[in-house]
Specification:
The structure holds 3 protein chains of 3 kinds.
Chain A lengths: L13 H36 L1 H9 L3 H26 L3 H31 L15 H34 L8 H28 L7
Helix pairs in contact in A: 1-2, 1-5, 1-6, 2-5, 3-4, 3-6, 4-5, 5-6
Chain B lengths: L11 H5 L4 H29 L10 H20 L2 H14 L8 H23 L13 H5 L4 H28 L12 H33 L12 H35 L6 H14 L15 H29 L8 H24 L1 H7 L3 H31 L5 H28 L13 H31 L49
Helix pairs in contact in B: 2-3, 2-4, 2-5, 2-16, 3-5, 4-7, 4-8, 4-14, 5-7, 7-8, 8-9, 8-10, 9-11, 9-12, 9-14, 10-11, 11-12, 12-14, 12-15, 14-15, 15-16
Chain C lengths: L7 H21 L6 H21 L7 H26 L3
Helix pairs in contact in C: 1-2
The chains are: A mainly alpha, B mainly alpha, C mainly alpha.
Chain lengths: 214, 532, 91
């Protein structure tokens, strides 16, 4: 038997609660667009200043890992969206399975990212830490990789927070059939997760694809 | 006294773990007084040093740290949070007939983040401060400065999240928690102004956040994106910084304009002239304010085309502000004017903001700015808006809503005396600075040619009066807390839902959910003021 | 009890995203000159639109939500456009 949907004292209905969660999360996502936006401007400025160096730097990124990671994240987004659909049908087991899959995929992404970072360190591509590139493109490559580490690092932090949030919802997944509040929260968390995916879609295009046709 | 939000629990826990927007507003209010005094102390030392042309009070390095401290604290830790987090937090839910903001716990988190940011920044300041100016320009701040730049950047970064959460809370609240019948065009203009402010808070502050991250990265790792030695462009920092910091000045002034709407209508006992124009002008200021930031960079090496575009847009953004000034003036016309303290503040705002705004247009002209940039003309311009405008409006709003917030009436005689003294002290402090600027005195210098001394001495004299005038309210408002007459629900005979509930309000704001049927500023049907 | 499975729309969206990923990688290796960048960004935009419309359900939400979603991107365009203007128009 479904539990009564508890609403906070200052709200008047569960519809109101669902609406403020949705609007609140979209407002927050707009702030994230601008946060990463500053980095995008940085990228555009220096790419415009020295496109050859950016092409050269792009060639030094690991496109295989990058592409696999993109596929991993897109699939995890599918899992989260599917989990919400399952939640609407009250299929708690499916919710648990899909959330677990999304979490695992997120962790795979972070693991591969770590492998990638290690490789870049070995290739002397980390500015400030044993960076060693020679030739006329060295400066531009250094700028590219400054952007690369800050942007992907920031993205990874956001992804990790997303993983933690999904884990919390996984833990409480038994509530889904009984509690409308759970589903509202899961939807909100899902929006965040998809957004982290969107950021990566753009970062992938900016980081891994330049210079490939050179 | 009946049960209200102040009597609902006396423990420290009930205050520091509150989710009541009214108590959080008071937490902010107390913190901001403390921070204003610190920023003011820096200003005091600056003005004392500037009485004489020589460097006699402090060294150059210390002077740099003083004006940086003054700027950082006053901008991020006083002006930006002032009206939104004190008056906004307290009044917005009441004004729209809600029981709290949309996300009460986020509201408390905002305050804790703010305090954490302040603590980190104060740590940087008291460990020796930073000497870059509040504008933190690279490459000096990242590569050469011998001061606590990264720590201060961290403090500002944390405080920025407080801003973002506040803006988010207000936006969602205003959209979704309005009382039945309260359509957008029935909202008091204070709400429209805070909505516009919140748009800027939410969309501009994240760019500051990422800029500070990049700044700190370059500072800590010695390599980054602003260093010209490795092909970086210091102007990139300036673009990113001012993309936030210009809209930030609208964060600072829009709430003040919002307050002035309430004061002018109440003390003219008349509805606002051109309600829709004023409402949409607030949004126009917020939007257009994002398109002008390059006017801080006219002489930095920015391209001429960019400078021309930004100059033109800076003229455009003045138009909605001017519309507001005209509409306030038209509201006064044939109103039944009463010159209580809040009204004096409102009138002072209109005059001083107009002067500040017009001198901003002078600076928007490329040809003039080439000479006036980085002189005291700019300093005078922004102090006219920030202090003459914003702080004045803050005091006005504080006096207006004081009975509602505290349940006490204060001495109108002393309040009016303070308002007049503030106005006089302010003008004596900052008008000479326009002259200094035109005559060529650069800003951020503590040593100057002797021919500038007269104006500097006048300015410092004015600052003494201003400081005393700012301290006056501490006494009569403080006195009112213990000995003031108990305030009725609506002492000023004002319209607006906040006046329909008791002073101070009960914990959940209204005993019964109000329903709105009348238009805003319906002064023809408003009750008479009770302190005539 | 019918066991639940994800809707066709969701699965189709995922398949489209995978296809677009393959497309963008393939096109990156084609010599298109300056168009490589434009193409990569366009495909990224299409993927984003798919994620936002289908996964984030913007296709079914009321107009206000869509305005909120669009606002961030609109403001990003202001930052990029006016920000780049200086660098692109320097002598």
């Amino acid at each position: 038997m479904p539990e009564p949907d508890e609403i906070a004292a200052h709200l008047s209905s569960s519809e109101q609660r669902d609406e403020i969660l949705e609007l609140g999360m979209w407002t927050f996502l707009s702030t994230e667009v601008l946060l990463f936006g500053g980095l995008i401007l940085t990228y555009m400025v220096y790419r415009h200043a020295d496109p050859q160096s950016f092409a050269e730097a792009g060639r030094q990124t690991r496109i295989v890992i990058g592409t696999i990671n993109t596929a991993v994240l897109l699939t995890s987004s599918f899992c989260v969206a599917a989990a919400i659909q399952a939640g609407e049908s009250g299929a708690a087991k499916a919710v648990r399975g899909l959330l677990a899959a999304a979490i695992v995929l997120g962790l795979i992404f972070l693991g591969l990212k770590g492998v990638e970072y290690l490789g870049e360190y070995r290739d002397h591509l980390v500015p400030g830490i044993d960076f060693e590139q020679s030739g006329s493109h060295a400066q531009g490559i250094r700028l590219f990789f400054m952007f690369y580490f800050v942007a992907t690092g920031l993205h990874a932090v956001h992804l990790l927070c997303g993983v933690i949030v999904l884990a919390i919802f996984l833990r409480c997944a038994f509530q889904v059939a009984r509690n409308a509040r759970y589903l509202a929260g899961l939807r909100t968390a899902g929006l965040y997760w998809h957004f982290v995916d969107v950021v990566w879609i753009f970062l992938y295009a900016l980081i891994y694809l330049p210079g490939r046709s050179g | 006294m009946s049960n209200n939000y102040l009597t609902d629990g006396y423990t420290l826990r009930s205050w520091f773990f509150t989710i009541d927007h009214k108590r959080i507003a008071i937490l902010y209010f107390a913190s901001l007084i403390f921070l204003f005094l610190i920023g003011g102390a820096a200003a005091t030392m600056i003005r004392i040093e500037l009485v004489t042309p020589q460097a006699d009070l402090v060294s150059s390095d210390t002077y740099n740290r003083l004006f940086t401290m003054h700027g950082i604290i006053m901008v991020w830790f006083f002006l930006i949070p002032s009206i939104p987090n004190t008056l906004g937090n307290f009044i917005v839910p009441l004004m729209i007939g809600a029981r709290d903001l949309a996300f009460p716990r986020l509201n408390l988190a905002s305050w804790y983040l703010f305090m954490l940011g302040a603590a980190i920044t104060l740590y940087a300041i008291f460990m020796g401060g930073i000497d870059t100016g509040w504008t933190l320009y690279t490459p000096f701040s990242t590569l050469y400065s011998n001061s606590y730049v990264a720590v201060a950047a961290a403090g500002i970064f944390v405080a920025g999240f407080s801003s973002i959460l506040t803006g988010l809370n207000f936006i969602v609240t205003i959209h979704k928690l309005r009382a039945p019948g309260l359509t957008w065009y029935k909202l008091p203009l204070f709400i429209w102004s805070l909505y516009a402010t919140s748009i800027i808070l939410v969309l501009a502050t994240p760019v500051l956040a990422i800029t500070l991250v990049l700044l700190a990265a370059e500072r800590i790792f010695g390599v980054g994106v602003f260093d010209p030695r490795i092909g970086g462009d210091p102007l990139l920092f300036q673009h990113l910084f001012w993309f936030y910091s210009h809209p930030a000045v609208y964060i600072m002034i829009l709430p003040g304009m919002g307050v002035v709407n309430e004061l002018i209508t109440c003390y003219s006992r008349k509805k606002i002239f051109g309600y829709k124009f004023v409402a949409w002008a607030s949004l126009a200021i917020a939007a257009a304010g994002f398109l002008v930031w390059g006017h801080h960079m006219f002489v930095s090496g920015q391209s001429l085309i960019a400078s021309l575009v930004f100059s033109f847009m800076s003229f455009v953004v003045a138009v909605p502000s001017a519309i507001k000034v005209f509409n306030w003036t038209a509201t006064l016309h044939k109103g039944t004017l009463r010159f209580d303290a809040p009204m004096l503040y409102a009138l002072g705002f209109i005059g001083l903001f107009t002067m500040g705004g017009l001198t901003g247009l002078f600076l928007a002209c490329l040809a003039f700015d080439v000479y006036a940039t980085d002189t005291y003309f700019v300093v005078a311009h922004f102090h006219y808006i920030m202090v003459g405008g914003m702080v004045t409006a803050y005091f006005g709003g504080l006096h207006y809503w004081w009975p509602k917030i505290t349940g006490r009436m204060y001495s109108d005689y002393w309040a009016r005396a303070a308002a007049i003294l503030i106005f006089l002290g302010f003008n004596l402090t900052f008008f000479p600075q326009f002259i200094l600027g035109v005559e060529g005195m650069p800003r951020r210098y503590h040593v100057y040619p002797p021919e500038f001394q007269v104006w500097n001495a006048l300015s410092s004299g004015g600052a003494t009066i201003l400081a005393a005038a700012y301290l006056l309210p501490v006494f009569y408002l403080g006195y009112s807390l213990f000995f003031g007459a108990r305030a009725p629900a609506n002492p000023w005979g004002a319209t607006g839902l906040e006046w329909q509930t008791s002073s101070p309000p009960p914990k959940l704001n209204f005993d019964k959910q109000p329903v709105v049927t009348s238009p805003p500023y319906d002064y023809e049907h408003a009750p008479e003021p009770q302190n005539a | 009890m019918i066991s639940w499975r994800p809707s066709n729309g969701l699965i189709a969206c995922w398949a489209a995203l995978m296809a677009l990923l393959a497309l963008t990688v393939t096109l990156a290796y084609q010599p298109l000159g300056t168009f490589n960048f434009v193409v990569a960004l366009c495909i990224a935009l299409i993927k984003t639109t798919l994620v936002m419309t289908v996964f984030m359900e913007l296709g079914e939400r009321p107009g206000l939500v869509r305005v909120f979603a669009a606002a961030g991107f609109f403001w990003l365009m202001i930052l990029l456009w006016l920000g780049l203007m200086d660098f692109v128009t320097r002598a």
